[in-house]
């Protein structure tokens, strides 16, 4: 398989669907909102974008299965290759007219990630990589930051919007992190947060209660850009445990030690 050629095709597919999402964002009305659960929003834009992505990705790799957010295709885990897709990461931002949302596409061979694309639509920023290659942003190679102390760092996270049982310790964690670093940001798209770690804008990102399609592509980008990926316990099963700590590799222990104070 020519992964470079495949990656170029996936980039083009993401850009095409991104154009659709950007166009729809200009005329989107709140009456189109649907609720999958508490604070879990979806619209026809998410669903149509997913169908577009699945249709075009099937053309470039017919033997692959899919894991998708909106279930607009049959999710399957029993193929040699699997696409893991979030067609609109940051739906709440999109619905409220906040211009940070993205398309996230990862390709796994078995349990190994081999390709990742995150397209931040409004800025036109395409982050991508494939096995054996560096990570790129719009054709320019990117690397994680070189910060060695938390006091030098800008961090990203996400706020719980359900499963509020862990909220008290998370607020305590926020408080300690904010006192140790330059600042703590909550953009609203896990894929973008991870892409920003990959290119050094954020020095680290942490969040829990994520799904595989939220983080698969972005996490691969961090790895390819020289970063470190763990769960809150320090293990590498971040997709399985649905929690992630992505760092530049130089502040990992300091981040983990702080998290472990509040999450056993």
Number of strands: 14
What is the overall shape?
Answer: globular
Number of helical elements:
8
Structural class per helix/strand content?
alpha+beta
Q: What would you report as the Rg, rounded to the nearest angstrom?
A: 18 Å
Mean pLDDT over the full residue set: 91
DSSP strand content: 25-35%
How would you sum up the major sheet?
A: 7 strands, mixed
- Separation, N- and C-terminal Cα atoms: 42 Å
Query: SSE order in H/E notation?
Result: HEEHEEHEEEEEEHEHEHEHEH
Regions with little confidence, pLDDT below 50 for 5+ residues: none
Question: Percentage of helical residues?
Answer: 25-40%
Q: How would you write the strand order of the largest sheet? A: 3-4-5-6-7-8-9
Protein name: Inositol-1-monophosphatase
Pfam family, one: Inositol_P
EC number: 3.1.3.25
Catalytic activity: a myo-inositol phosphate + H2O = myo-inositol + phosphate
């Amino acid at each position: 398989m020519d992964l470079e050629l495949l990656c170029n095709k996936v980039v083009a597919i993401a850009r095409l669907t991104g154009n659709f999402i950007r166009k729809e964002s200009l005329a989107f009305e709140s009456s189109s909102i649907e609720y999958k659960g508490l604070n879990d929003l979806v619209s026809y834009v998410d669903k149509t974008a997913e169908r577009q992505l699945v249709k075009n990705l099937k053309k470039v790799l017919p033997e692959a299965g899919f894991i998708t957010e909106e279930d607009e295709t049959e999710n399957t885990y029993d193929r040699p290759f699997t696409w893991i897709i979030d067609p609109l990461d940051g739906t709440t931002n999109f619905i409220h007219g906040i211009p940070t949302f993205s398309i996230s596409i990862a390709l796994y061979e078995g349990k190994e990630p081999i390709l990742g694309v995150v397209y931040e639509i409004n800025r036109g920023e395409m982050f991508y990589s494939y096995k054996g290659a560096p990570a790129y942003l719009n054709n320019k190679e990117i690397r994680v930051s070189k910060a060695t102390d938390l006091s030098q760092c800008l961090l990203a996270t996400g706020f719980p919007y359900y499963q509020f049982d862990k909220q008290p310790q998370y607020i305590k964690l926020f408080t300690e992190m904010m006192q140790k670093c330059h600042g703590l940001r909550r953009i609203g798209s896990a894929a973008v947060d991870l892409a920003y770690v990959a290119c050094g804008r954020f020095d680290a990102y942490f969040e829990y209660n994520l799904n595989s399609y939220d983080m698969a592509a972005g996490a691969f980008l961090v790895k390819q850009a020289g970063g470190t990926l763990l769960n809150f316990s320090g293990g590498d099963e971040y997709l399985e445990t649905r929690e992630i700590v992505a760092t530049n590799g130089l502040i990992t222990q300091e981040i983990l030690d702080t998290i472990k104070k509040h999450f056993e």
